[in-house]
Each structure stands twice: as structure tokens, then as C-alpha cells.
């Protein structure tokens, strides 16, 4: 079945789930406010969260793979975003990146504006209620890789922290970054807190991933380069308790909440004009992420997991083979360019500078190859 058809079918099945639908109860609203987190942004952060309304005021418009979407509503609003065919599946909320980098893509600084945290309240069996605190940033600043430059910046960045409660008491908090990274699931007794019992989430500079402590965290080690998140104290501290927009999840969303039904991407379609695209299909801009009503989010809300809150150590999770091969190819490109740069310049200092590094890179690439192919 085509991807669009699968997505529409998935949404049509929401009504078959056994969760009670409707507005959150007063008890669960109080619970969400009780554990509303403080997000601590890096002291060098310049791209902040925003409301959905702020982002859609852009300027943005709706595109598909061929260009501007015929018949798309203009301007886009929270109440009409899902009004196109298949609720926007296969479309992209698009803006001119360079023109707006210093404009609305900076988001709303919590010190001077009022961004929102969109909270999914997911009641389950045995007194379990999961609280998923989402926030949206108009722009995600990714990482700069030597020689290649910036890779995978994207418009639209949904990030979250999940707090699991049992009978009204927090049991654990789950910190996620780059899908499979972050500090993971932590017993609530070990979660950093402020204001007595509310969790703190450190937000990585640029990419906005969630970590439980300040510091530098490597989430990709490709031997020849590392991708790292940086978090710190001393930046903007966003207390979300008075900035919550709460939803029972899953539910039927109408009116001003219709944007939750949107099945398209919250950002531009990724570019493909970089010279390394054939080896690693991500250029300076990658495609925006989907919204909140999607299968992985629904799984968190629906799954009847064990009540155990033991921490999950995901530091040693292996990447899929395809990802490993992409990193290996990038490493080879790095090695070739480094040698070429030293040779073309005919500068003995550069040759001395690069030679030991290239030997180390080559050794690392051999180790990576042996790991990938289990030699």
C-alpha cells in the first residue's frame, strides 16, 4: 500500500482503540500542571519554541513534491491546516529559509513572548497516566561537519519530555534526542528537579534534544568526526506550568485543534543538490518532521508497558547497517579530501599535519568496516 494510503488508514483506525476519548479530566489537568517541566536552553541558543499559530503566520505556504500545492488554503491557520486531500499527507509547510532565518524562524523567546507546550495526557490501565510535554521550534540548527559543512538543518522541530505517573505520583521521566539518543528513561527519584518536584530538561543547543544534565553528549561517533549535543546552565529557563495546552490523547480534534490531524511535514522538503547526496542523502536542509499524531507517538500513548521505571542504557545501541555504511562513506570522503588538500597545497606543514591524522582515520575506518561486516 502506498505510504499516503497507509497513513490515512492508520488515522482511520484511531477510533478503534480502547482509550477513553474526550477532554482531559480536572484531575489529569491538575496532574499535568503538577509535573510541568522547566526546559533549560543552552546559553548560546538563538532558536526558541513558538506556538503553532505563530509559526503558521510565517510566512509559510503548503507545497508538495512538485511545488506550491494547488487549492491549498492561504493563509494557513490551525483550523484549516488539515483541510487538503488526505489531511495533507505528502505535503510540506514551506518557507524561504535564508530570508526568514533572522525573522520568525527564531521562534518566541520565553523571556519576552509566550510560546506554548502542547501536552498529551494518555491515561492507561492500573492508574498509569503518561504526560507527554511537547514543544515546537520553527528551526532546527543541526551540526557542522568539517569539509562537508552544515548537514540536516530543518524547518519545524517537535521535541518532548515524557513523565509517567501512577496513581498521581511520578514514576519516571523519559528524555529523548535524535530519536534513539538522549538520557533515556530515568527513575523519578534521580530526575533533576526544581520547585520541589517538577522535572528539569536540558535542551541541546540548536537541535533541541532532551537531556537530563548539562554537558556534551556524543550521539554519533563516526571515527573521523563526532556528532555531539551540548547543553548548559545559564541560558533561558522556560517554566511551562502556565504555558500548557492540554489534550487527551488520542482523540478527535476539531476547530482550532484541527492542526493535530495534519499528516504532512512541518517544514520544507529537503534539498538534494549537495555533491555528497548520492552517498549520504541529506544536504544542508533535510525534510521537516511529521506532526504529533503519528504512529510512534500513538505507540507511547497506547502501549500498556510494564510499570518498571528502570533506566534504559541506550548509549551502545547499534545503528542500522545503512546508517553505518553512510558514515563509512563519509569517512572515506573525508580521508581523500584531507590527503588531496595537503598534496595540492604542496605545503610540508600541512602534509605533516594531515599524515598522522589520516593514518588514525584509516585505522578507524578499518575498525568500523570490521564492525559493520562482522569480520
From TrEMBL:
DNA repair in keyword set: no
Alphabetic keyword roster: Signal
Pfam family membership, one: Vps62
Matching InterPro entries: Vps62
Superkingdom in the source lineage: Eukaryota
Keyword presence, Magnesium: no
Signal sequence coordinates: 1-22
Name of the protein: Vacuolar protein sorting-associated protein 62
Organism: Serendipita vermifera MAFF 305830
Amino acid at each position: 500500500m502506498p505510504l499516503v494510503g497507509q497513513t490515512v488508514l492508520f488515522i482511520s483506525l484511531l477510533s478503534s482503540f480502547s482509550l477513553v476519548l474526550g477532554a482531559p479530566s480536572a484531575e489529569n489537568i491538575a496532574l499535568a500542571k503538577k509535573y510541568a517541566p522547566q526546559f533549560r536552553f543552552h546559553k548560546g541558543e538563538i532558536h526558541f519554541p513558538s506556538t503553532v499559530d505563530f509559526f503558521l503566520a510565517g510566512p509559510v505556504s503548503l507545497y508538495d513534491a512538485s511545488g506550491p500545492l494547488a487549492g491549498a488554503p492561504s493563509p494557513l491557520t490551525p483550523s484549516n491546516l488539515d483541510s487538503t486531500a488526505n489531511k495533507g499527507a505528502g505535503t510540506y509547510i514551506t518557507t524561504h529559509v535564508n530570508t526568514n532565518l533572522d525573522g520568525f524562524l527564531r521562534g518566541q523567546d520565553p523571556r519576552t513572548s509566550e510560546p506554548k507546550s502542547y501536552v498529551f495526557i494518555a491515561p492507561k490501565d492500573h492508574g498509569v497516566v503518561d504526560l507527554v510535554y511537547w514543544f515546537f521550534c520553527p528551526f532546527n540548527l543541526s551540526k557542522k561537519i568539517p569539509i562537508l559543512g552544515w548537514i540536516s538543518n530543518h524547518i519545524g522541530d517537535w521535541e518532548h519530555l515524557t513523565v509517567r505517573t501512577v496513581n498521581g505520583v511520578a514514576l519516571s521521566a523519559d528524555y529523548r534526542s535524535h530519536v534513539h539518543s538522549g538520557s533515556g528513561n530515568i527513575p523519578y527519584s534521580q530526575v533533576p528537579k526544581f520547585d520541589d518536584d517538577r522535572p528539569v530538561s536540558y535542551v541541546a543547543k540548536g537541535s533541541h534534544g532532551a537531556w537530563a544534565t548539562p554537558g556534551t553528549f556524543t550521539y554519533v561517533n563516526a571515527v573521523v568526526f563526532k556528532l555531539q549535543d551540548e547543553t548548559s546552565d545559564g541560558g533561558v529557563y522556560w517554566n511551562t506550568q502556565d504555558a500548557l495546552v492540554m489534550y487527551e490523547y488520542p482523540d478527535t480534534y476539531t476547530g482550532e485543534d484541527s492542526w493535530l490531524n495534519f499528516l504532512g511535514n512541518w517544514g520544507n522538503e529537503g534539498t538534494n543538490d549537495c555533491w555528497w547526496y548520492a552517498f549520504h542523502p541529506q544536504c544542508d536542509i533535510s525534510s521537516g518532521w511529521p506532526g504529533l499524531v503519528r504512529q510512534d507517538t500513538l505507540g507511547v500513548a497506547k502501549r500498556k508497558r510494564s510499570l518498571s521505571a528502570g533506566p534504559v542504557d541506550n548509549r551502545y545501541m547499534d545503528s542500522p547497517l545503512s546508517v553505518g555504511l553512510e558514515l563509512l562513506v563519509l569517512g572515506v570522503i573525508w580521508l581523500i579530501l584531507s590527503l588531496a588538500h595537503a598534496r595540492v597545497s604542496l605545503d610540508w606543514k600541512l602534509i605533516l599535519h594531515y599524515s598522522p591524522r589520516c593514518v588514525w582515520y584509516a585505522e578507524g575506518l578499518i575498525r568500523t568496516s570490521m564492525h559493520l561486516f562482522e569480520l
